[in-house]
């Protein structure tokens, strides 16, 4: 197996530990990988502004794959995040998702993401929890008004108790005409993007963008939404804390996120 020149990594449960901090050995390994000519890309269900501080900590400027691949950005000459690729939800689909979430009275938190914006109806427990994780706060604005406008909607995140999320997921799965990609980043988090949006599709875009052969790519993650990119990469790696289904299809399983499994992957497969 040859060395890889492009690594694409999930964030939560992979890059960061359970305290949402990047372990020191992982920071050192990634910086060394970059110095040796490798490209390390962050890919997450997070919004772009929930990823920039981590990229800055690692000391590099590469594309950020946000919303599971629905919006890929890179800093321009002025330091602003500019889109390289985007695939928003259909306007009618976004409105229907919101209506179904509210009509069923599930007590869930609905979050709408457009480019660099995060909109919510109100900021309470679930929104505050997510803000603490991502490092920035949402904008409180009536979502019916947001969805009635012309802004592209790249992702809808619904947070709530697991039984409520189960009900909504079933209702949305029963609506194929909406052309949705539905995944769980956590049992209590339902991530909704346009059909065809995956981290695997983002990997394909990036290897073409950097002109790197598939065999020289690696994808690493821990959750079910990482499974497509782990399958699609030249080398697929699962974290030791990862889902069993992911570990079963991966080429390798490394240590968990609290002891820096990414550093192990870089040592084994990096340039």
Automatic annotation (TrEMBL):
Cite the entry's keywords alphabetically.
Answer: Hydrolase
Q: Where does the source fall among the domains of life? A: Bacteria
For this protein, the record's PROSITE patterns field holds: COF_1 (PS01228)
CDD domains noted in UniProt: HAD_Pase
Q: Which residues form a coiled coil?
A: none
Task: Name a GO CC annotation attached to this entry.
Answer: cytosol
Q: In the UniProt record, does the keyword Transferase occur?
A: no
Q: Which GO terms describe its molecular function?
A: magnesium ion binding; phosphatase activity
Q: Which Pfam families match?
A: Hydrolase_3 (PF08282)
NCBIfam families reported in the protein's UniProt record: Cof-subfamily, HAD-SF-IIB
What's the protein called, per UniProt?
Hydrolase of the HAD superfamily
Lineage of the source organism?
Answer: Bacteria, Bacillati, Bacillota, Bacilli, Lactobacillales
